[in-house]
Hints:
It contains eleven helices and twelve strands. With 357 residues, the protein is α+β, with helices and mostly antiparallel strands.
Amino acid sequence: MDDLKAKYLTQIADAADETSLEDIRIAAVGKKGEVALKMRELGKMTPEERQVAGPALNALKDEINSALAAKKAALADAALDERLRSEWLDVTLPTRTQRRGTIHPISQVTEEVTAIFAEMGFSVAEGPRIDTDWYNFDALNIPGHHPARAEMDTFYMHRAEGDNRPPHVLRTHTSPVQIRSMEATGAPTRIICPGGVYRADYDQTHTPMFHQVEGLAIDKDISMANLKWVLEEFVKSYFEVDGVDLRFRASHFPFTEPSAEVDIRCSWEGGTLKVGEGDDWLEILGSGMVHPKVLEAGGIDPNEWQGFAFGMGIDRIAMLKYGVPDLRAFFDSDLRWLRHYGFAALDVPTLHGGLSR
């Protein structure tokens, strides 16, 4: 055993790499190694001989295994040292010129819209993207037979059999945030609700997930005249023009009465949109006076308070302002597109410093 010990400890010490070390391990303490063969001979010994040879063989095996583990660790440390020497980096060298990240147009336009309405006294309200159908439909005076509640238009969350909780949906608009805000703060209030929404639609101007911003103002003497002024100021600031003509067309939305779709005067010279001039009209949003039933659902007395609401697609107005031809490109994660349409990270939109620098 002393000879085996000396033999293998020497080989382990001289091993140059882990492959050689593994060969030594197999030869010494593997299933068919010399130490294993010696242990098989214990059955041929007398009890007195086994009492001496057994512990000695176990001690030899443990010592060889310990030497193998120590050598393996030493080889790993040596390999790491060599890698660190060969892969060093001089941190004092000047940095290489690299492309900086950019702000996505949706994020930029959301900040632009927020800055404009903040100047008019609107605060930002947020809510869950998964909400109950009560907040998404019932509280907004959308009846059960309305087409928007069909599964072909709305994403409903799966419910297990026997689950009696209210159905949940991926919100189809940010209007549920208006109800939650009315419940939380009451009247008067003045908020905008930007965020992602979901509808089962997909083409050049529709995607299953997109972004909206909705506005709500409630007070005792608010009228459509206030709504018109707010929207005119927004359009002038957002498109950065001195004047704008808005056209209100009578429409129907379950959550407002009266309701109106809003168009802006524009022209399309050479495929470029110019707001505030020309003979064309372009629809940009829907609006109206908040329906009394919606006020009641938010816990506000419609006999004492009234207000206006409006909503528009952030993706749509981003397309109009920055000339993006296809809505789907917003969500393709194409770095070339992002570098072309993206904004510098430090160009924070403000009315004083400029929105789209």
